Amino acid sequence: xxxxxxxxxxxxxxxxxxxxxxxxxxDAVEVxxxxxxxxxxxxxxxxxxxxxVPAARLRPVIARLDLPPLAEPLRRxxxxxxxxxxxxxxxxxxxxxxxxxxxxxxxFTEYRLGGPLPKRLTPERAQALEKLExxxxxxxxxxxxxxxxxxxxxxxxxxxxxxxxKVSGDASPPVPDPDFAPPALSAEQRDVxxxxxxxxxxxxxxxxxxxxxxxxxxxxxxxxxxxEAIRVQGQALVMVPEIALTAPWLARFAARFGCQPLAWxxxxxxxxxxxxxAAIADxxxxxxxxxxxxxxxxxxxxxxxxxxxxxxxxxxxEEGVHYHARDVAVMRGRMEALPVVLATATPAIETxxxxxxxxxxxxxxxxxxxxxxxPDVQLVDMTRHPPARGQFLSPLVVAxxxxxxxxxxxxxxxxxxxxxxxxxxxxxxxxRIQCPNCTAWMVEHRLSRRLACHHCGHQMPVPDAxxxxxxxxxxxxxxxGVERIGEEVRRLFPAARTAIVTSDTITSPARxxxxxxxxxxxxxxxxxxxxxxxxxxxxxxxxLVGIVDADLGLxxxxxxxxxxxxxxxxxxxxxxxxxxxxxxxxxxxxQPGAALMQALAKxxxxxxxxxxxxxxxxxxxPPFGRLAALVISSEDAAAAKAAADTLGDAAxxxxxxxxxxPAPAPLAMLRGRHRHRLLVQARRDLPLPAILRGWLAGxxxxxxxxxxxxxxxxxxx
Length: 717
Ligand SMILES: Nc1ncnc2c1ncn2[C@@H]1O[C@H](COP(=O)(O)OP(=O)(O)OP(=O)(O)O)[C@@H](O)[C@H]1O
Ligand SMILES: [Zn+2]
Description:
Elements: E1 2-5, E2 13-14, E3 28-33, E4 36-42, E5 63-64, H1 72-84, H2 89-96, E6 108-113, H3 123-131, H4 139-146, H5 150-158, E7 162-167, H6 187-202, E8 206-212, H7 218-231, E9 235-239, H8 247-257, E10 262-264, H9 270-282, E11 287-290, E12 302-308, H10 325-336, E13 339-344, H11 349-356, E14 361-365, E15 376-381, H12 395-406, E16 410-414, E17 423-426, E18 443-445, E19 450-452, E20 459-461, E21 475-478, H13 482-492, E22 498-501, H14 509-520, E23 526-529, E24 542-547, H15 561-573, E25 584-589, H16 595-602, H17 605-619, E26 625-634, H18 637-649, E27 657-670, E28 673-683, H19 688-697, E29 706-711
Parallel strand pairs: 8-13, 8-14, 9-11, 9-12, 10-11, 12-13, 15-25, 16-23, 16-24, 22-23, 24-25
Antiparallel strand pairs: 1-2, 1-4, 3-4, 3-5, 6-7, 17-21, 18-19, 19-20, 26-28, 26-29, 27-28
The protein binds adenosine-5'-triphosphate and zinc ion.
Residues 435, 437-438, 440, 453, 455-456, 458 line the site of zinc ion.
Binding site for Zn(2+) 2: 435, 438, 453, 456
Pfam families: DEAD, Helicase_C, PriA_3primeBD, PriA_C, Zn_ribbon_PriA
Subunit structure: Component of the replication restart primosome.
């Protein structure tokens, strides 16, 4: 029997099946490996090679584990993913079978506060006592919730402070009612919804792009596909970019279907995660909402996948298996014969091209729901209307904020930069404060009074004197982040109520919900936020959107810079005027003549994308050609460089294939590792995965060097 043991770096191995044991592909098993017992999965023998071992010498499988087997279509999806993204099969299998899959449903002992206080109160214990008030979970869960080590939790259990509670892991999620509160759809919404419903009941592969302007009711419409999946006794998966931002979405779901869907995310407690996994695997969970990691779960009876905000780059996984959840979702739809709906107001170029070729069915919602108009968009030429010295908002934007406040309406200022200032500079010696682990500047966060590296998370207090020359009071904050814009707004409008919305302030779904409630209740006048506020929020009284620095996206220069800038600005603009009052958008730019700015001002998506797509075609860039990146890194600078050179020397040669580099990565050091990059550009008809595998297999590198393969890369740093 051919088995993939869950052991890093190991391929498939053959084992003997003991008499009386029945095994089939997709079964979970326990097998011997050297002196150890490890878990593995039985795989289709014809699809994998294994070392030739005479039958008599094969070691026997120890046991078949009591897990629902991975079904054939999911196995084929796993094969495809591992092959396409040049990833180890077991790493992909582990996304379908996370560790909770192997826990038995009844074995949970959870703990909660309830006993006497411990005699010895260390700072860690005090922190745990404070954080764990009202919480319950396994020792591991509580350690995570309290931000302390497992040992601290075990100590509190030993002291009797945390008391044990047995919990059963197999509670069933509620079943959403497809007919609970269906909305009255507009005629154009109805047409699209009917197509989606027909596709779900047909039960065939149907990739679809649901393109609707911001506020057109895409959510209401794809809810009808979800309702149909429930009606036909199946399951629906809705993938969202970030689970932390789903509070308003969950509320809408509950209003439509009468109960919450099952949310799959990393913050679940072990018992909740186990219960969720089991309910997904046996079909009791009817609607699942989750980020990327929900995609590979073994749904028993999946009928449709919706990818909401399908243009979002966060669907691309940037660690472990570097897959793109949007693309793998479509492939899952093909393997399992079901419709996949990519919903967005600003489709990615890859998606647009597939829709225009007819590979994806293209559904449109061209107008906002309920007669709301798209906002009026104007460029603010910063060279002609510059801000006052030391400030960042043009007088035109300040005047618009003033008018909006006077009308009692709300404004949003969008700047995709967390913190107070992206750079801290010494005015005496010119020193720039850098992260010790990364080629990156430390970003000042004034709310938390720290400097932070946005790449590795390194933090330090803001120094009083320059760390280089020692000059006192010489450090200057350069450039704005949202906190600094917030400060400027409070200085200009002391009576206005402001909210700063970034991943630093919206750290949990509960906080996101509180923000939404505050804005909806009219308790906030001006929101200053990063891309976090642009995602799907609906505030009827928000009528002004100011884009603080539209040029930010023009620089940076990777192949998707223009597209991403367009998406962000259109999504941010899309928050304006969604109710009865008309909206207005002001875009601050130093390059009002740039094609992107002109297209934004005219709302000319077609013109902008026609030019972008033509450029991609001319250069053979995705989706017309394919890219793959190799990132070579090591803590040892010389080893990283040598390995990159070795790989560069061994680079494959073929007609239609171009290898660029090796070159030091723009982020030349990350988390203390020195980095080099190679970029492969290949014609579409070349077998890129096989070429990459052959290349890597032909080169022996020291174990101190790590090579990450990134197929269809989104990050070029
Ligand atoms: N048929 C309908 N009946 C009642 N309300 C509707 C209907 N369609 C849409 N709406 C409401 O209109 C608003 C905008 O809809 P929705 O948020 O679904 O748009 P969207 O296309 O997803 O927008 P965005 O892309 O900006 O997130 C929501 O408050 C939604 O509840
Ligand atoms: Zn860093």
